[in-house]
Amino acid sequence: MNVRCLLIDDEPHAVEIIESYIEMVDGLEVVGKCHNAVQAFSFLQSTPVDLLFLDIKMPKLSGTDFLRSLRNPPKVIFTTAYREYALDGFDLDVVDYLLKPIPFERFLRAVSKVMRLESQTVSHMVPEPTSLASEKELVPSERDAFLYFRADRKMMKVYTKDILYIESLKDYIKIITTTGKPLVVKQAISSVESMLPGRDFLRIHRSYIVALDKISAWSPNHIEIAGQELPIGRLHQKDVGRVLKMEV
C-alpha cells in the first residue's frame, strides 16, 4: 500500500518539484494538489491522506494555522523558504522541515522518516530502512532517475543519465542532452541545481552545471563535454579542481 500524499503550496513550480520527486520513489503516490489551505481542508474531508507536504506562507490561511485547525492531521512535512518557522514545526510535531530549494537527497531523508513511522504501525507498509544501504533502496537507479520540466505548455521528462550540461540564459535554462535538441525552460539554474544529485553533477560556473561522467577533458579554466568547451568560473575553480582530482 502506498503512502498517499497531498501537496499544499501556492507556488505551482514548488508543487511540480515535489511531485516529480514523489514519482521517483516507490511507495509514494500523489492523491491531490492544493494551492491554499482552504482547498486542502475541503480535500481532506473526502479523501484519505497519509502525508501532507505543507508550505507555511500561503494566502488566506498559513500552513501552521491550517495544521492547528485539524483534529486528527496526517503526518506532515513542512516545505518552506523560511528558517524562522522551524520552532513551530517542532511544536506541531511534524515529521520534518524542508527548506527550499529542496535537494532530492534531503527530500529522501524526510520520506524515509515517514516510512519508518508507517512501518511501526502498519505491518504491510514499506519496511523500515535499518541502514544506509536500505535507505538507498528508495532511490531509483541511475538508469531510471528523471526530472520534469515545463516547456511548450506541457511537462517534459528528462532522464538525468542523458544530461550533458545545463546552461543559464538569464531567466531561462538550456538543457543539453545526448538524445535530441536542447530543451529551453523558464527556470533559474539554481533551482535546477538543487534538484540534481550532487554526486553526479557539478556547478562549474554561474552559467553552467555539468554531468561529471560526461566530462572528456579539463584544465584549470575549461571543461570539455561532447566537443564543447565550457568555462570554469573563478569562484568555482577550487571546488571544481577538488572534485575532478578525486574523480581521476
Walkthrough of the structure:
The chain has 248 residues and is of the alpha/beta class. The protein folds into two domains: 3-136, Response regulator (Rossmann fold); 160-247, LytTr DNA-binding domain (OB fold (Dihydrolipoamide Acetyltransferase, E2P)), CATH 2.40.50.1020. 31% of the residues lie in helices and 31% in strands. The protein is built from eight helices and 15 strands. The chain has helices at 12-23, 37-46, 63-69, 86-91, 104-121, 132-136, 189-195, 237-247; strands at residues 3-8, 28-34, 51-54, 75-80, 96-99, 146-151, 154-159, 163-169, 172-177, 183-185, 201-205, 208-211, 215-218, 222-225, 228-231. Strands 2-1-3-4-5 form a five-stranded parallel sheet. A five-stranded antiparallel sheet has the order 10-9-8-12-11. Strand 4, helix 4 and strand 5 (96-99) form a beta-alpha-beta unit. The protein is elongated, with a radius of gyration of 20 Å. The N and C termini lie far apart (44 Å).
Instruction: Name the average pLDDT.
Output: 84
Order of helices and strands: EHEHEHEHEHHEEEEEHEEEEEH
How many separate structural domains? 2
CATH architecture of the largest domain: 3-Layer(aba) Sandwich
Q: Could you state the oligomeric state of the chains shown? A: single chain
Percent range of helical residues? 25-40%
CATH class placement of the largest domain:
Alpha Beta
Largest sheet, described in full?
5 strands, parallel
Determine the N-to-C terminus distance: 44 Å
Uncertain runs with pLDDT below 50, 5 residues or more? 121-142
Query: Structural class given helices, strands, pairing?
Result: alpha/beta
Tertiary shape = elongated
Percent strand: 25-35%
